[in-house]
Specification:
262 residues; alpha/beta; 6-stranded parallel β-sheet; 11 helices; 10 strands; 17% strand
């Protein structure tokens, strides 16, 4: 039995897991990257739901986690409710763009959202806008190329190379007069410092990490009494192996075990 399982199409959502372990290092946690089906962001709604259902079913059978966290905006906006209905005995926590937080800090009421194409297409963004940012303009940018670049290069590229990769997107939002940018794909969190450098002092960068992690821990404590345990080491699984070098670098950076193919 595992306490938490984090899921993404790639390794982008790992900061959610590491942040949760900072808040409670006693919980057991693992991360499954569905790299065999990466990227989810260019797939149809039906394809995303199908991938998520197959992966979740396998995870439940093998690990029986108390809480599954979709550390991926694309899976969350497309498949979260379907998974809750399909697997009613498992608790799920989703990740959605931090539109509420962005609205709270925006001064000129123009908010940028950079995410996958699927997340940008999803009407849930407009529902969040109507709920929390009705007086704001929401500027969308689906950037599949940048997501792919980060998945395959973020842990080996230089800071300058990463800065060059994100600069076109940040220049786009600057021209659109946005004063806040939401990192709406979890991959972007791995290089948040690069986005902040590209934005400078005039544009604030926000994400949903803190809110999602706090909610996940609340859900876990409702489902299972908290017990005192020693510090746990998390593991990373992938469904389709790429070069091991990048996973070794990534795992060393975050202090987690690379468990191989799932």
């Amino acid at each position: 039995m595992t306490d938490f399982c984090f899921i993404d199409s790639g390794v982008g959502g790992i900061p959610y897991m590491t942040e949760l372990l900072k808040k409670d290092s006693s919980v057991s946690s693992l991360y499954v990257a569905d790299t065999a089906n990466f990227p989810y962001g260019t797939k149809s709604h039906e394809e995303i739901v199908s991938c998520a259902e197959k992966l979740v079913s396998k995870i439940i059978k093998k690990f029986n986690p108390s809480v599954i966290v979709f550390a991926c905006n694309t899976i969350s906006v497309n498949a979260l409710e379907v998974m809750r209905q399909t697997f009613p005995d498992t608790s799920f926590v989703g990740t959605v763009p931090a539109i509420k937080l962005a609205a709270a800090v925006s001064k000129n009421r123009r908010i940028g959202l950079i995410a996958t194409e699927s997340t940008c297409r999803n009407p849930y963004n407009h529902e969040l806008k109507e709920l929390f940012a009705k007086d704001c303009e929401l500027v969308l940018r689906g950037d599949a190329a940048l997501v792919s670049y980060i998945e395959h290069n973020a842990f080996t590229a230089s800071f300058d190379d990463l800065l060059s990769a994100v600069k076109p997107a940040m220049d786009f939002f600057r021209k659109e007069n946005c004063d806040v940018i939401i990192l709406g794909c979890t991959h972007f969190l791995n290089i948040k410092d690069v986005f902040e450098k590209a934005c400078g002092k005039d544009i604030k960068v926000v994400d949903s990490v803190d809110g999602v992690v706090r909610h996940a821990l609340e859900v876990f404590k409702k489902e299972k009494p908290v017990s005192i345990k020693e510090k746990q080491t998390a593991s990373l699984y992938v469904t389709g192996l790429l070069e091991n070098k990048e996973y070794d670098i990534l795992c060393k950076r975050y202090g987690i075990n690379f468990a191989g193919k799932f």
